[in-house]
Amino acid sequence: MDIFGVPLPAMLSQLLLGLVNGSFYAMLSLGLAVIFGLLNVINFSHGALYMMGAFLAWMGMTYLGLNYWVMLVLAPILVGAFGIIIEKTMLRWLYKLDHLYGLLLTFGITLMVEGVFRSFYGVSGQPFEVPELLAGATDLGFMVLPNYRAWVVLASLAVCLATWFVIEKTKLGSYLRAGTENPKLVEAFGVNVPLMVTMTYGFGVALAGFAGVLAAPIIQVSPLMGSNLIIVVFAVVVIGGMGSIMGSILTGLALGVIEGLTRVYYPEGSATVVFVVMIIVLLLRPAGLFGKEK
Per UniProt, what is one GO molecular function of this protein (predicted)? Predict the structure, then answer.
């Protein structure tokens, strides 16, 4: 059976692979949305922190003999701790200034982080083995799906939905949202707003580190692995609506699928289709699909 001249198995396999890419887009754009929506900071260092998560996992497994599952937990914690240091020593002084200052600072941090890893490991990628528990593949009939890629989709969806639930449906999330709009009022209720802001930034960048560990067995671990991806992820955030948690999740998954479909019908356009969608959305709805019009 063909769909517009493309065999159905080929179509389904590309959709599934697109969903895998969409999972990374959703995870990274979620971290950006959390940081921008709650802190009003455009975190351009997100791609470098994604790369740091992958490298820390690789270093823990290579030099310390730790396994994948330990590093899946430990690497995001270490990246989050690094993010907390950045927030407490640098970003904290920029909250009342224009967004451009935060963007320039995080861009500078990106260059420094990438430069440090490049000086030690060059630009060639480091191999990262798939954990033994997730090795092999499953025959779905229309394609053979690597078990690890299925794990990536499930893990990404679980973390994204859990994050959305905490921010939108719990008391902690209400404190976070209120703290960004009226910090003095929230402090009057005994909430330590500066600590809450710091931990929010740490959690947002930890999501990038978690995505980096998930991506490491799929792509080679390289100091530049986040450079191209972050541009696409920023486009995802803009399309979904700056600061929209659910918008980032749904848009990331949808654009991964759209990218997969484009590879079937027009492979040359797969690298730019996200930006074409962004232009169309900005023309029709400047605040993004799920953003709030001011």
Answer: transmembrane transporter activity
Percent helix, strand and coil across the chain, each rounded to 5?
75, 5, 25
What CA–CA distance (Å, rounded) separates 5 from 150? 27
Residues 160/22, Cβ–Cβ less than 8 Å: no
Please tell me the distance from the alpha carbon of residue 85 to that of residue 90, in angstroms, as a whole number: 8
Quote the CA–CA distance of 173 and 159 in Å, as a whole number.
16
pLDDT value at 194 more than 80: yes
User: Phi first, then psi: what are they for 126, rounded to 5°?
Assistant: -105, 130
Q: Enter the pTM of the model.
A: 0.91
pLDDT tens for each residue of 253-288: 999 989 888 888 888 888 889 999 999 999 999 888
In the beta sheet, which residues pair with residue 22?
Answer: none
The tokens for 42 are 């455009």
